[in-house]
Amino acid sequence: MKKLLSICMTAITALVLVLVLTACGGTKTGYYKITSATAMGMEVTGEQLSSLGFDGYLKLNDGGKGELTFAGETQELTWDDKTLTADGDSIEYTLENDTITIDKDGTKLVFTYDADYKPAK
Predict the structure, then answer these.
(1) Which terminus of the chain has fewer Cβ atoms in its 10 Å neighbourhood, N or C?
(2) Which residue intervals of the chain are DSSP H helices?
(3) Is the pLDDT of residue 2 over 50?
(4) Long-range contacts of 63-71 (CB under 8 A, 24+ apart)
(5) CA-CA distance, 7 to 12, in Å (whole number)?
């Protein structure tokens, strides 16, 4: 009986660890500031965009809701671990090392997680 109980406890512990590690491995909520944009073979840094008045960020909130703000325009969106959706249009993204990359039709946007970022009001 003790051996069966030990096996059950080990299985439960392993299941809990898998669930915790899976939950922690997802996308972080918070602000992702634009760090580069590439289109038509030209790359522009986040600093260059900012100096031209084209600040941008993704804000991902708990519950799969968020917003994309670029050049003063804000668009509400929903998100999951692979897709951002706004106004019924979805686009896939990748997440690696706190960096979200959106790459579609020759345009690439890169956003980097910034725990200290606060957008200008």
Answers:
(1) C
(2) 2-24, 46-51
(3) no
(4) 69/119, 70/34
(5) 9
